[in-house]
Design brief:
- The chain starts with a helix and ends with a helix.
- It is of the alpha/beta class.
- The C terminus is likely disordered.
- Among the domains are: 237 residues, 3-Layer(aba) Sandwich (Rossmann fold), CATH 3.40.50; 107 residues, 2-Layer Sandwich (GMP Synthetase, Chain A, domain 3), CATH 3.30.300.30.
Length: 546
């Protein structure tokens, strides 16, 4: 069975029911009006830019794009890039690529022109589907664009750049019948890119079997039924958002794509769309709690009783955050999921809603998965000892595309070495300690930034924090804490030093910097950005001292 079978099943069983809703609270009414030109999408201009798509329309639109690709002579296995913000066109385009027997290549919407060019070249992309937000970035890399066989623009005809063809105009005249293309679970399906927090991203190749396995894993973990409504806020190019939505695909239930992260927008979407499941990133959950604490947001103003599950992934979750959340929402089930793009998103480890007493852990092996914690020789370590987390299961990547050296570093037989340091307690629950590459060695001691970050977050003035290692002539490295304060709060270096006195001496940050903490779209701290920022500031200091 392949993942497109699930879409076709839903079109047969629930054809007239809504599959996807898109809400963009920041768009103006005239923009919503412009989108009515599309004959493929239903638009409600009376709501703040709300569009919807039924399961039958979803499947037909996917078929139309697949047939467009085939009509242009696009062969099986061709890589087709998708560069769009979350929208109703995104998933039909993705499934259209798969139905044509091609390989989908989702691209990060935050990529610069240079990164877009790099990834298109790395993945051998021949066809690109893109939105209006990326016109200027593509125009600045004409040599890359000229190499593409076809560029399809998703937007109004008036906005279409000269180098592209209009997606809606073309697919409208294509057949909505399923194309006669046969493929199976062993065929290649998608290339995803690593998050790029350690440099330029790597291209990760997956087969169809990994996609279908992710559907079953997600639905097993969170028990999506046909009556659930999933609020999807993270970007669809990332495996995390899409693989959580796969639970909705498997159950034929509705999903809402919210383009915005303001707490009031999230609550309004949950209330008006009757959402039952919401996946948040840590910063968004923190923002909600801050506005509830300050009285800027009142949960009584919204209909939230149907909201049954709040889950978080993509990064370590402070136990203190969940304790605060449960005070406001004692009836919520809570879960956290761990995964990588190399394991096709979240689910290879998950806490489980029944294990609320283990908050702070990432959990136990997910449905269909196995885990080990190993030392530098690949041998299992004892419970409580920190080692590298390795996972084995149906979502492990085939390889890093065109990068056998990097593949050999992380794939050892059927086991994927994650690069994350972890420990396991006596009950078998796994706790993340830190990224292997982020461990700070200071005076011969291993410092794990996450442990220091979790402590500093206990200070009620702190909104976010990141700890990185900086070079030191005497100790090799020292721990530096970059601290972002809550709005309206003040704190001095001396105050924070005093607060950190409860840490063991060797774990105390040697440098405190009050600044913003950059995170990528999936919530991970961009530590290379912080290292560059700190290095630049040190150079300025040294120049000033001269």
């Amino acid at each position: 069975m392949v993942i497109t079978d699930f879409l076709e099943k839903n079109a047969r069983l629930y054809g007239s029911e809504v599959a996807l809703v898109e809400i963009n609270p920041s768009d103006e009414r005239d923009q919503a009006k412009n989108w009515r030109e599309s004959s493929l999408i239903e638009t409600n201009v009376d709501a703040p830019y709300r569009r919807e798509l039924t399961w039958r329309q979803f499947d037909k639109n996917a078929n139309r794009f697949a047939n467009l690709l085939l009509s242009r002579g696009v062969a099986r296995g061709t890589k087709v890039g998708i560069l769009m913000m979350n929208c109703l066109e995104w998933l039909p385009a993705y499934f259209g690529v798969l139905k044509a027997g091609c390989i989908a290549v989702p691209l990060n919407f935050r990529y610069s022109s240079e990164e877009i060019a790099y990834c298109l070249d790395l993945a051998d992309v021949e066809v690109l589907v893109f939105g209006r937000e990326f016109i200027s970035r593509l125009e600045s890399i004409p040599e890359t664009v000229e190499k593409l066989r076809f560029c399809f623009f998703v937007g109004t005809a008036a906005e279409k750049p000269a180098f592209a063809e209009h997606y809606d105009t073309l697919v409208t005249f294509c057949s909505f019948e399923a194309p006669p293309v046969a493929f199976d679970e062993d065929d290649f399906a998608a290339i995803y890119f690593s998050s790029g927090t350690t440099g330029f991203p790597k291209a990760i190749l997956h087969r169809h079997r990994a996609l279908t396995a992710s559907c079953r894993t997600e639905q097993n973990h969170h028990g999506q039924t046909h009556d659930d409504v999933f609020l999807c806020i993270p970007p669809l190019y990332h495996t995390g958002a899409k693989m959580h939505w796969f639970g909705s695909l498997l159950s034929g239930s509705r999903a809402v794509l919210l383009r915005g992260v303001k707490p009031s927008w999230i609550f309004r979407a949950v209330s008006e769309e009757k959402c039952t499941i919401v996946w948040l990133l840590v910063p968004w959950a923190q923002d909600i709690l801050m506005e509830l604490d300050s009285g800027e947001l009142h949960k009584e103003d919204f209909m939230l009783d149907q909201w049954r599950l709040m889950h978080i992934g993509a990064q370590p979750v402070p136990a203190s955050l969940i304790a605060r959340w449960k005070k406001y929402f004692p009836h919520h089930q809570y879960d956290t999921n761990y995964g990588l793009s190399e394991s096709l998103g979240p689910g290879c480890v998950h806490l489980g809603v029944e294990n609320i007493d283990k908050v702070g852990a990432i959990g136990v092996p997910g449905f269909g998965w196995q885990t080990r914690i190993i030392d530098e020789n690949g041998d299992d370590v004892a419970p409580g000892v920190v080692g590298e987390l390795a996972v084995k299961g149906p979502g492990v990547m085939t390889c890093y595309y065109k990068n056998p050296e990097a593949t050999a570093e992380v794939l050892h037989g059927d086991w994927l070495y994650t690069g994350d340091m972890a420990r396991q307690d006596e009950d078998g629950f796994i706790y993340l300690v830190d990224r292997k590459k982020d461990v700070i060695i200071s005076g011969g001691e291993n410092l794990y930034p996450v442990q220091i970050e979790d402590f500093i977050r206990l200070n009620d003035k702190v909104k976010d924090v990141a700890v990185i290692g900086l070079h030191d002539d005497r100790l090799g490295e020292i721990a530096a804490a970059i601290i972002e304060l809550k709005p309206g709060r003040t704190c001095t270096v001396e105050e924070m030093d005093a607060f950190c006195m409860d840490l063991p001496r060797y774990k105390r940050p040697r440098r405190i910097i009050f600044d913003s903490v950059p995170r990528n779209p999936t919530g991970k701290i961009e530590k290379p950005v912080l290292r560059e920022r700190c290095a630049a500031s040190r150079l300025v200091e040294q120049e000033y001292m001269k």
